[in-house]
Amino acid sequence: MKIVDIVIGLSMGGVLSCIHFGGLWLVLKRMPTSERPAFLFWTTTMIRYGITLYGMYLALTMGGIVLVGACAGLYLARLMVVPRLADRLETNGGSSLLRAAKE
């Protein structure tokens, strides 16, 4: 049963990471054309962190092993998602902020 819990946690963390960092990519892509970029950034930041924290809370209610798996899944997906999104943003106009996150 513990293997299933770890797989569930890894899956939850991967999905949360894609939502969190994919949402960040979309916001950074829209910021140059936004009338109120600071409002856009801070509003979506609160929403993204709210979703991520709620997902981690759900993992915690499912057990400690699931939470550890979710944390590992979040981190592993971040290692794969962020560099790819940084490359996409650089080819579409670029941002020095994501170059630092890529390294």
Q: Assess the beta-strand content as a share of residues.
A: under 5%
Identify the overall geometry: elongated
Give the strand tally: 0
SS content category: mainly alpha
What is the residue-mean pLDDT, rounded to a whole number?
A: 85
How far from one another are the termini?
Answer: 37 Å
Order of helices and strands: HHHH
Task: Quickly describe the structure.
With 103 residues, the protein is mainly α. It is built from 4 helices and no strands.
Textual characterization of the structure:
- The protein is mainly α.
- The chain is 87% helix and 0% strand.
- The protein contains four helices and no strands.
- The protein has helices at 2-30, 37-62, 64-91, 96-102.
- The longest helix is centred in the N-terminal third of the chain and has 29 residues, at 2-30.
- It is elongated and about 50 Å long.
- It starts with a helix and ends with a helix.
- The model is unreliable at 98-102 (pLDDT under 50).
